[in-house]
Amino acid sequence: METTEKLPSSWKKTFITLWIGCFMTGLNFSMTMPFMSLYIETLHPYGKFELNLYSGLAFAVTYLAQAIVSPIWGNLADRKGRKLMCLRAAGVMTFTIFAVGLVHHAMTIIILRFVQGAFSGYINNATAFMASETPHSRSGSVMSNMMTASVTGNLIGPLVGGLLAGWAGYRVTFFVCGAMMGIVFLLTLFNTKEHFTPVEATKMRPIKEIFATLENQKLIVVMFITTLFVQAALMSIAPIISLLVKELMHGQGNVSFVSGIVAAMPGFGTLLVASRLGVKMDRIGPLKILVIGLAAATFVFIPMYFVSSPWSLGMWRFLLGIANAALMPAVQTLLTISVPDEAFGRIFSYNQSFQAAGSMIGAVLGSIISGLFDYQVVFLVTACLMLCDLLLVWSVGSPFKKELKA
């Protein structure tokens, strides 16, 4: 932080705790989700169609629930604070993840995953928590550093989950993840401090009234759309990566290992530049960084259509990770500096709903396109999405254009 800005002594402790919480949440997700279909397969001799259906539903219902209930939690966050929302998410996830390890039917997993989605959101709420505690002049660097937590967890998770599942079985993996979320709950409860004054429901202004007073209403809407587009672009690739790698390798060699490396490459790219981009964002403004990131993502997706080996695909995905480091932190920073504190939780929750919707749309879009055409056609469609969003952001209005010329 700048020396002229006095921060509470508890700020660093809160930041470290929430960073660890986001890391462990990302770790838990990637420890279990890649192996969910294999776990479901052990519960019952399901046919191929049933197995694919149940696996897809177990993935999708979480995002469906998030999209539906996030505005409700956002309203509560503006009245009770973000810390309570982090505790709510960590507490419920402790029990739902642990319970998945006890089930004997796929439908029970789907129900538990829906409940988990309805009460989840630790990472988004922790990000909003830190955004509200941080001076606007350093929001970019803090948002970028918070992003590295979940990215690091997502990178390490598949390795830890695979080793643990191979050694002790899939059920034990869920038990361990549930226990870890319990630790996150306790750390958040005792090691974080939020400077928040509760607002009575009767005194809280309606979001429509607050939104009408904002200077950059169009900018906020465009950030919601950008979140949806970016998440859809990232998730459209996720379902087909291993299948594309298998095709590029002609079914020869250790496809699973190579697929894991290719899938992880964006995370390495993001980790490499996230902190530096955050500092740069604080200096030149988040809108410039967002435009550069969208342009870079558009450019990087196009060559993926022409790749002929998994290693060239991995290289371009590494570059995509670098571009991705400029996207979501920039969106979150713009929302932070453009929204009054009294509407902070609700605005971030709406953004979370768009993010969840993007995950669902992207996964479905990628599956449909790859089913109708070649796998690599998905990259061209995704590039078009990024280009459309770039043009949309560029046309937001005069405040944006003035910043670009600054």
UniProtKB/TrEMBL annotation:
Residues of the Major facilitator superfamily (MFS) profile domain: 14-401
InterPro entries: MFS, MFS_dom, MFS_trans_sf
Species whose genome carries this gene: Ligilactobacillus faecis
Topology relative to the membrane: Multi-pass membrane protein
PROSITE patterns: MFS
Keywords from the named record: Cell membrane, Membrane, Transmembrane, Transmembrane helix, Transport
Pfam families: MFS_1 (PF07690)
Name this polypeptide is given: MFS transporter
Residues spanning the membrane: 16-40, 52-73, 85-104, 172-190, 219-245, 257-277, 289-308, 314-335, 347-369, 375-396
Record's subcellular location: Cell membrane
Source domain of life: Bacteria
